[in-house]
Amino acid sequence: MSHTSRPNFGRRTFLGNSARLVGGAVALGTPLVAASRVAASPVLAKGLRRPAAASLGTVRTAFNWVADVEWAAWYLGDANGHFAERGVGVELVHGGPNTPSVAQTLAAGDADIGVASDELQLIKANAEGADFVILGAMYQRSPNGMVWLAETEISTIEDLVGKRLGLTTGDEIRVDALFRVNGLEPDYEMVQMSFDPQPLIDGDADAITCYVTNQPIQLGLRDIAVESMTNSDFGLKAYGDVLFASREYVEANRDLLVAYFAALLAGVEDNVADPEAVVPLLVDTYGQDAEIDPVYSTAGNPAYIALYDSEYTEANGRLMIDPAYLENEVYTSYEAAGETDLPPVDELLDATVMTDAHAL
Predict the structure, then answer these.
(1) 278 partner at 20 to 30 Å CA-CA among 73, 80, 228, 285?
(2) Can you tell me the distance from the alpha carbon of 294 to that of 130, in angstroms, rounded to the nearest whole number?
(3) Distance of alpha carbon 316 from alpha carbon 23, whole angstroms
(4) Which domain-ending residue is among 177, 199, 234?
């Protein structure tokens, strides 16, 4: 596998959610504490509603990125009063490129519920002494994937063999696993890049890593015809925006969490019913300091909504994680990435809180 160096681009337009791929935030095989991270205080969202005094309590939710349409269900759950109706106060703690990881934020006691990009972060955190438990996932497939120009003939993993692939720091482990989980040895030319897809536009790469909810949409808004697929569709399975907390917190606050997730589910339903409703809330309130692009947010939200559902959620409800899928598909992907000693699924996953939230 050869490597071609390329200067960084850093155009703000294309940073978006994809910037979370840096610093070990979601890279397979990287430790919880990323050396490139600079400690900084998370940002508390503004304009939040508070319930009446007879509330169950307040839940602080830590996101792994800045205010974005990705968190639409929380914004709608708050703005439409779903949390307040169930006696739940909410604090939404946004992250960013120079903030601690979500797992670190919870470990420091600065949040109660975390949103992790994938399960492996929590597996590694637990291996280092934490005791996190997964409660559900916003997306049945991780948005991590590949994007290429529509004129390039790519539709299967075999079509990536021998191609020039644009990768950001840390992507090699995931891309190598993408090949190995399909029974192939990694065979591609690496084009080092930043988060700007310009190497794809310039023809210096045949395909690049991406969030399918970000760069493909941004490129489409520039009238650049592209195709994209999630890594899950290529065979490297993973949930997206995994919801977790410490086991101690879950045991001490179960009724509060059931009400919290019931309200969040109502926010999900609101988002599906009207995908454009969250955009003015994001621009004017929750993301008023984040330079929100309403055009992208309007176009990107349906792409996130498309990741809500699977056959399992159709039968069991949204935000649910299938234990069999986690063990037989997701764990297989991690093993292809070289991970060993994965914990028993029944130790890592507690699906009962979300099940009770659906029944509330």
Answers:
(1) 228
(2) 38
(3) 35
(4) 234
